[in-house]
Amino acid sequence: MTLEAAFIVPMIICIFALLIYFSYYLYGRCILSQDSYILAFRASVADEEISGSPADFVSSRASLVAGKKYFGSSFPKFETTTEGKSIRVHGRSEAKHAAMGRYFLKPGSGWEYEAAGRARKFEYVSHIRKLTRLRDMGKEIMDQIGD
C-alpha cells in the first residue's frame, strides 16, 4: 500500500461513516417534526373535559406517538405552549454517536436538533353548523329577492 492510500482510505471510510451519521440526524429531525405536528393537531381536536389541557394531553400521549422510531437518537422531550386557540408543541432531541470520537469532522458532543408543530383549535361542529346556517340564510334572502 502506498503512502497516499494510507491517508486516503481512512479518510474515505470516515466520510462514509459521517454520511451514515448525517442520515441518522436527518431521519431523527424529520420524525421529530412529524411527531410535533401530530401531537399539536391531536391536542387541538381533543376534548378538554376528557383529556385536560393541551399540555396534559401532549405529556400523556408523547410516548405513544414517538414510539420506538428514534434509533440513533435520544428519546425526544416535548414542551407545549398555548396562545389563545393556537397550540405549539416544541420537540427536542439529540443524536449522539460516539463511534468516531473526535476523528476528523465529527464533534464529540453529538448533534442536537429541534422541531415545532403548530395547530389551531377549531370547534369543527359549531363551525360547520355556523356555515350551514349562513348558507341557509343566504338562500332565504336570494329566494325573497327573486320573488
Task: Give the gist of this structure.
The chain has four helices and three strands. With 147 residues, the chain is α+β, with helices and mostly antiparallel strands.
Assembly of the depicted chains: single chain
Low-confidence stretches: none
Secondary structure: helix percent: 55-70%
- Structurally, the number of domains stands at 1
Q: Please describe the biggest sheet, giving its number of strands, its sense, and whether it closes into a barrel.
A: 3 strands, antiparallel
Strand order of the largest sheet: 1-2-3
- Rg from C-alpha positions? 25 Å
Q: Could you say which overall geometry the principal axes of the C-alpha atoms support?
A: elongated
Number of strands: 3
How far the N terminus sits from the C terminus, by CA atoms, comes to: 97 Å
User: What string gives the helices and strands in order?
Assistant: HHHEEEH
User: How many H/I helices?
Assistant: 4
Q: What share of the residues does DSSP label as strand, in percent?
A: 15-25%
Average pLDDT figure: 84
